[in-house]
Amino acid sequence: MNTQEEVGEFTQIFNALMSLMRKFIFKVLCAGPIPNHVSFIMDGNRRFAKKHNLTGLDAGHRAGFISVTYVLQYCKEIGIPYVTLYAFGVDNFKRQPEEVECVMDLMLEKVEYTINQAVSGNLKGVRVFFVGDLTSLNERLRVAAQRLMEVTEENKDLMVVVCVAYSTSHEIVHAVRESCVRKCDGTGDDPVVLQVSDVEECMYTSVVPDPDLVIRTGGGDRLSNFMTWQTSRSLLHSTATLWPELGLWHLVWAILKFQRMQDYLEKKKKLD
Amino acid sequence: MDLNQSMRLLSSWIAQIGGLGLDLLWRFIHLVVSLWYIVSGIIEAVESYAISLGLNKKYSSINIEKLRCLAVVVDIEEARDVSKVIELLQWLRTIGVKQVGLFDSQGLLKKSKDMILGTVPGSVLSEEIGEKNSSPDQNPLALEFISSSDNKEAVMKAANILLQDYLKSSRPENDKGENFFTETHLNEALRVVGENVHAPDLLLVYGPIRSHLGFPAWRLRYTEIVHMGSLNYMRYGSLLKAIHKFTGVHQNYGT
User: Fold this and answer.
1) Interchain pair B217, A265: CB under 8 A
2) Cβ neighbours of residue A40 under 8 Å, at least 6 residues apart?
3) B26, B105, B226 member nearest A28 (Cβ)
4) pLDDT digits (tens, 9 = 90+) for B41-74
5) Same domain for B9 and B131
6) Residue B219 lies in a domain
7) CB nearest to A95's CB, from B22, B251, B255
8) I need a surface site. Which of A24, A120, A179, B205 has the fewest CB within 10 A?
């Protein structure tokens, strides 16, 4: 057996051992309560690219996508049913046009790649949902996103909600507008009054329950206009780690924190 | 008992022992995590006392002008002890903070408004600033009292104002309301129902966990949220440190 084959075999054994270790860690973690819905504010891609002298406007975001695949795999193995990813905010459109176009092209590339994976049966139970003001995306990306939602519609193990062209303020205004227009179109003599439930039904993120845990990477202590309406009872966890550097142990630590505070969080939910 | 039954019983025992083993390991990990929190809490307390005593020169001057509006979120159990809230406000006044929004989800602090305003020297209601021609205090501390009713309920009130205006308007058929329901309109409607729409720069959370606990969502967009721990164990040094850290933050607001 030559050196290359030996290295290949060693890598396989090492990966298998790592996978076993990871599954064992998750089994231990699952002895306690697991969050039903985890949201990620994926900050730090550009700083990662700068830190590692990567060239290209989308270099950091490419590294960020690799992180997305790992994080989703871990969440699925742990058994978290809902994951939300804050991929692109409404305010991000104010960036340099070249950068925005680059990010949109990268998103299209990754969505098309994911469609191929889904069609080949490699997505294994992952359902993808795109939410936000999708009308502000270019047509190709919008069509691809719609296609990905269709091909993964039947999957039920993990629902991944990708927030694109999203912000809470935009979401609230959109939901108020939608619910008002619906009320006006309704028939009957009942007085036309909006309730909280009418507006919440029309929110972009109405497809998922409120998050239990929000994880922000990149060291920021703010929500950056992300799900501020839905996070009244969420544990907000922030880490200085940049998104492309987020690993298994960061996720485990965040879930351990959630488990420590579970009694308090349940008590708060019952008070609502 | 035949072989199959014995095997099933054995598997069941192994599964139960395995489950017990995982549970014990999980509890052990949480014990280690709790110990870590105790140690880091002690380190934080020592650092905080050093800052209070002025031993750390880094915190001797703070660019307080950058902090235009501070909000304090208090867990409802801790909000019952108003004396601690009053002490916190006195510290904030000493540091030079000019505007503070006090939030608890059930409005306990709102009910204690008169006591707080009467006890904290130089404090006035923020809506009264500018209404009085002269103030006895040249540097008043403007206080705002906020609760959950200022969150979703307030947005509903504002939305219903917009809805009524929309109903009365002559709109084309198939109109989707895009010109009628905008951020500006909602802001204006919130002001009409008496809500403050300004976003605080910094939100300090006093309670068991880092959570905004229902602070008005419309105002929270780019607010820095810092967890300060329990109000019962609040420390002046930690407060200085949090405000100092905020003054060093640079935000790009998504751009």
Assistant:
1) no
2) A71, A83, A84, A85, A86, A214, A215, A216, A217, A243
3) B26
4) 999 999 999 999 988 888 878 889 999 999 999 9
5) no
6) yes
7) B255
8) A120
